[in-house]
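Researcher: Next entry in the queue.
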Amino acid sequence: NRLKERLEELTEAIDNDRLEQEMVFIAQKADVDEELDRLETHLTEIERVLESDELMGRRLDFLMQELNREANTLGSKSISNITTQASVDMKVLTEQMREQIQNIE
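Model: Structure for this entry, 105 residues:
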């Protein structure tokens, strides 16, 4: 009985507006669609640059910076260990590609 009363008190004390705000905030924080869209755009541009005859060193270096930014954002928004690990893996691979790009003129 006492537990039930305490639970009812706590339930009444919850500010529904505040709870809704927090739920929206968490949902927005976990939404990575925008980052995934930008990643796809950057990868498409990398493919285009690699297939072109243009000078590519600086452009690819810039695109690697963008990939790294997206990986950082994905990692900071992550709510799962799998996503966090994927973000770290992506940063490692991006850095390896960036090192190779340094050799391209």
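Model: The chain has a mean pLDDT of 88.
Researcher: Noted, moving on.
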